[in-house]
Design a protein that fits this description.
The complex is a heterodimer of chains A (161) and B (469). Chain A is mostly helical and 161 residues long. Helices cover 61% and strands 0% of the residues of chain A. In chain A, helix 4 packs antiparallel against helix 8 (128-154), helix 6 packs antiparallel against helix 8 (128-154) and helix 7 runs antiparallel to helix 8. By secondary structure, chain B is mainly β. The chains are: A mainly alpha (161), B mainly beta (469).
C-alpha cells in the first residue's frame, strides 16, 4: 500500500479545493508528533468503494486471464484467437463496470484496458505485430496506474471526488 | 500441538519431551517448562499515594480505595520459542470478582520504592483470573506479552469494590510465571516496514506516534529470535530505492537479513524493475534466478522444519506481460507444480497483497494462485499491504467458510503507518487498526500457533492455535 505522505502531484488535481486552499498536504496523516487521524476516513475504507471493487472482481480476473492467453497467442500461436476474443469481451465488461463511486478512481481502474481491447481487435484481424504493441502498452499502463490507484485509496475519503 | 507435561519447580527449568496425537498423526515436540518467581511485587493505594508496601506478604487489588498490585519477573535462560506463558497467583480471597492482569511497559520500578504516586502506567489488559478461591492458584495466560528472555511487569486491578489478596513473594506461595518453550521453529511475519530518511516522521529512525516504527518492530524480532523472518513486502518506503534500503531498512529489519525471506511489494516497483529490492536482498529474493537484480520473477519456495513455505509475487501486473498471476501464467504453473512436489502436511504461502481484506486492499489478481493453494491444501496465506492486522477463518477461494480452506493473516503492521477498515469481510475474525508489531508463528508438525507481538506503543494481543489439513 502506498503511504499517502509522499503522494505525487498527479493526485493533487483530484482533490477538493477546500483541502488544497487550507494549505495542508493532501494526506491522511497528521503532522509529525501528533496522533494519527482516524484511518477509517480513507477512500479504501469507504463501503461503497469497497463494494464496487468486490462486485467487479470477476471482470478484473477475466481481463487478467484473457490477457495471459492473448499474450501467449500473439507471441507464438498465429491463427489462434480464443484468447484475443476472450480479452475483447473481458475488456468490454471491465469498461462497462464504470463508474466507480469516486470519479477519481475511474481512470485508474480501467487504465490500459482500452489499449488491451485494441490489441485484442488487432489480434482478431490478424495484425499480430500491432497486437503485441497494443497489449504491451495496455499492460504497462495498467501497471503504472497501480501507484496512483493506491494513492487515491489511501487519501482521506472526503478529499476525493 | 505442544506437549504436554508441565513441571512447576521454583526457579528451575525442567525439560520434558512428549509425544502428542494430533488428528491421527504422531508428532514429537520437544518442550521445556521454566518457572520463575517474582523478583519484585507490591501494591499501591490511591488514598495513601506515598506509602510503599514492598515488604507486605500480600499483593492486593481493590476498586475502593483504588488499589493496584504490581508484579515483576526476570525471565532468563530459556531457549527455543515461547509457546505459552502463564501467570500464577495464589489467592487468599474467595468470590466471583475477578482480577484483571495487564501489561506494565515500564519495568524500572522496585518493590521497595513503588507507591501510588510513582507507579508506572498500566497498559493493555491480558486477561482475567475468573472467580477466585482462597488457598488456590489462579492462572492467566500472558503469552502475548512474554516472548523470550527479559524482564516483564504486570499489574493486578479490579473494577469492583471487593479487596482481592494474593500471596506476595514474601509469603509461602509467591507469584509465578510459568514459561513453556518449544523447539519447533518459529517464524516472524510482517510487512510495510521502513520509512525513508527524508520522511518527516523518520525522527532518526525512531519515528513519531503512528509513523515510522521500524526500529521498534525490529526490536520485537530480536526479542522473538525466530528461525526466519517472512517479510511481507513494502519493506522500504516510499519507492524502495537502493539508498533508502541501505539507510533505513538496513539498520532496522536489516539486522536479520540473513534469515529474512522477503516478498516484493508495490512500493518496490517505485524503483524500475524493483531494482532496489532485488539488489538489496540478492539471491534471498531470487533463489530461482541467481544473480538477478532487476525485473526478476520474485517467487520461490523453501522449507522450515516440517513446513513448506512459498513466496508468491503478488504484484501481478508487474510481471509476465501484466498478467503475472493469471490462470496459465508462468507463476501459476510454477506454484501448481511446486505445491504438487512438496506434499508436506503443513504449507504456508506469503505475498504482499491479501486476497481478503476488510477494506479495498483485497486483490482479485491473485485469485488463480489462491485456487492453486486451495487445491493443494495450503493451510495459511500471510500478506501485508493493508497497514493493519486482520485474521480470517479458513475459507475456500469463493470466500466461504471451509475447515479445509486457507486461513489468511494480514500483518501490514511492520512500522510504516496505519490504515483502517471498512465493511467487515466475510470470515474475518479479528481486526486491529492503529497497531504496530509482528506476528509470531510457531510451526509444529501438524499445527501452528500464532501470536501478535505488539510494539509497546500500540498494545494489542491476539493468539491461538490451528491444525493443518
Amino acid at each position: 500500500m502506498r503511504r499517502s505522505r509522499s503522494r505525487g502531484g498527479a493526485l493533487a488535481g483530484l482533490l477538493l479545493a477546500g483541502v488544497l486552499t487550507a494549505g495542508c498536504a493532501t494526506t491522511a496523516e497528521a503532522a509529525p508528533g501528533t496522533p494519527p487521524g482516524p484511518p477509517s476516513d480513507m477512500v479504501a475504507t469507504n463501503p461503497a468503494v469497497q463494494q464496487w471493487f468486490k462486485r467487479h472482481e470477476p471482470e478484473r480476473m477475466a481481463v487478467n486471464n484473457a490477457l495471459a492467453q492473448a499474450n501467449a497467442q500473439v507471441a507464438a500461436v498465429p491463427g489462434a484467437t480464443a484468447g484475443c476474443s476472450a480479452l475483447q469481451k473481458a475488456a468490454d465488461a471491465m469498461l462497462a463496470a464504470l463508474p466507480t463511486p469516486k470519479k477519481a478512481l475511474d481512470s485508474q481502474v480501467v487504465a490500459g484496458v482500452a489499449e488491451l481491447r485494441t490489441g485484442a481487435q488487432q489480434c482478431l484481424a490478424g495484425d499480430l505485430a500491432g497486437a503485441r504493441t497494443s497489449l504491451a502498452a495496455g499492460a504497462a499502463a495498467r501497471a503504472a496506474a497501480e501507484d496512483e490507484l493506491e494513492e487515491i485509496l489511501e487519501a482521506p475519503n472526503g478529499s476525493v471526488n | 500441538m505442544r506437549a504436554l507435561h508441565r513441571v512447576f519447580a521454583g526457579a528451575a527449568t525442567v525439560a520434558a519431551v512428549a509425544a502428542a496425537l494430533v488428528s491421527g498423526t504422531t508428532e514429537q515436540a520437544a518442550a521445556a517448562t521454566s518457572t520463575f518467581t517474582a523478583s519484585d511485587d507490591s501494591y499501591v493505594r490511591q488514598d495513601l499515594p506515598t506509602t510503599n508496601y514492598g515488604t507486605s506478604t500480600s499483593v492486593q487489588a481493590d476498586a475502593s480505595p483504588v488499589t493496584n498490585g504490581y508484579l515483576k519477573f526476570t525471565v532468563s535462560g530459556v531457549s527455543g520459542s515461547v509457546s505459552s506463558a502463564t501467570l500464577r497467583i495464589f489467592s487468599r480471597s474467595t468470590g466471583t470478582t475477578a482480577v484483571k492482569v495487564s501489561t506494565v511497559a515500564d519495568t524500572g520500578w522496585t518493590e521497595g520504592g513503588i507507591t501510588y504516586g510513582n507507579a508506572p502506567a498500566i497498559g493493555a489488559q491480558l486477561g482475567t483470573t475468573g472467580a477466585l478461591t482462597a488457598g488456590a492458584w489462579a492462572s492467566v495466560d500472558v503469552s502475548a506479552k512474554v516472548t523470550g528472555n527479559g524482564t516483564y511487569s504486570f499489574a493486578l486491578t479490579t473494577g469492583t469494590t471487593a479487596a482481592r489478596l494474593f500471596d506476595s513473594r514474601q509469603a509461602a506461595n509467591p507469584p509465578q510465571l510459568v514459561v513453556e518453550t518449544s523447539t519447533d521453529p518459529v517464524v516472524v511475519v510482517g510487512g510495510d516496514v521502513a520509512c525513508a530518511t527524508d520522511d518527516p516522521n523518520y525522527n532518526g529512525g525512531s519515528g513519531t506516534p503512528g509513523y515510522c516504527h521500524m526500529k521498534a518492530t525490529a526490536a520485537l524480532i530480536g526479542q522473538v529470535d525466530p528461525a526466519a523472518v517472512l517479510n511481507l513486502g513494502d519493506s522500504q518506503y516510499n519507492s524502495g530505492s537502493p539508498a533508502a534500503y541501505t539507510a533505513s531498512y538496513g539498520p532496522s529489519w536489516g539486522q536479520y537479513k540473513a534469515r529474512t525471506r522477503p516478498t516484493v511489494g508495490n512500493h518496490d516497483y517505485g524503483t524500475s524493475g524493483a531494482a532496489g529490492y532485488f539488489g538489496y536482498f540478492g539471491n534471498l529474493a531470487t533463489p530461482l534466478q541467481p544473480g538477478c537484480t532487476k525485473a526478476c520473477n520474485g517467487y520461490y519456495s523453501f522449507d522450515v522444519g516440517s513446513w513448506h513455505i512459498v513466496n508468491i509475487n503478488a504484484e501481478c501486473t508487474r510481471i509476465n506481460g501484466g498478467a503475472g498471476c493469471a490462470a496459465g501464467s508462468p507463476q501459476d504453473k510454477w506454484l501448481e507444480a511446486d505445491l504438487a512436489a512438496h506434499p508436506n502436511r503443513c504449507t504456508l504461502v506469503f505475498g504482499h497483497r491479501p486476497r481478503w481484506s476488510s477494506n479495498s486492499f483485497a486483490s482479485p489478481d491473485i485469485a488463480p494462485l489462491v485456487d492453486d493453494m486451495y487445491a493443494a491444501g495450503v493451510d495459511l496465506y500471510v500478506a501485508g499491504h493493508s497497514h493493519a492486522y486482520e485474521r480470517f477463518a479458513p475459507q475456500n477461494p469463493a470466500g466461504q467458510a471451509d475447515a479445509n480452506g486457507i486461513r489468511e493473516f494480514v500483518v501490514g503492521t511492520g512500522g510504516a503507518n496505519f490504515s483502517g477498515f471498512g465493511t467487515v469481510a466475510a470470515n474475518s475474525q479479528i481486526r486491529k487498526s492503529k497497531a504496530f508489531g509482528v506476528a509470531k508463528l510457531t510451526l509444529h508438525a501438524g499445527s501452528y500457533d500464532w501470536s501478535f507481538v505488539a510494539d509497546p506503543s500500540t498494545p494489542y494481543s491476539d493468539s491461538g492455535t490451528g491444525s493443518c489439513h
